Amino acid sequence: MKKTRDIIIIGCGPAGASSAIQLKRMGFQPLVFEKNEIGGLAVNANLIENYLGYPKGISGVKFCSLLGKQFLNHNIDIRFEEIESAEYKQGNFLVRSQKGIYSSKYLIDATGTEPVIPKDVFIDKKADRKVFYEVSNLSKVKNKEIAVLGGGDAAFDYSLNLSKNNNVSIYNRSGNFRCLDLLLQRAKENKNIEIFKNYIINNITGQDKKLKLNFNTIRGKEKSVIADYVLIAFGRKPARDYKIKNKKFFCIGDKINGDFRQISLSVGDGVKTAMRIYNLENE
Q: What are the tens digits of pLDDT across the range 36-46?
């Protein structure tokens, strides 16, 4: 058994990072776990324009780089490990990773969301290795034809990101888009992006070194297109539920904010939760 810590935070996106920084300022010694990189999904953002302090906006990559530096400047203990389980037992929280078991008095779940993987779309084995659900998997791809499936903010934001080095085609299942008008207009004005409405994906197959996407249209016609890669953006859902109910357990950030997934709200959640823990300790 590892030594008991004041607080364990699972996830180091904006919510987890802001909570850890505020807790450290208040005299706590939080232990943070992150399975990927500091900043979480914020790295995927094409341009963050509504977070105060950046009058011209800032890319997700740059924002996460600065966040990482700020976080590390506070000398917070962070372990790049994926947590496999968490529970409350005999007065303490126990979290398990492949490297061991850790114990804490408080536990903060800032694990965010994960992509929705469609169950009604057949993807054959030859195609599977070129079909992705996170834009970060395609960050180094250049001069390729990329098909993005979806019509929400994520689909358009991802497309704007990918269009810097590739040709992108967006295929939406209906005639109505669920993204911000601002993102739709930017995509329409982008010479490297094409937008298609009423394309319902049926299956994706491998064909030589390319992928073949087979669609049905609302008029009953079949359409097929060829692409190098596919990015599916059919929405996101909360990450794993640890099913813990305890006043010293806090779930924060995108995981609980539903459609209100904004960096500013996640940062506020993190700071507010840190202050609530401070108050509990000083009751």
A: 999 999 999 99
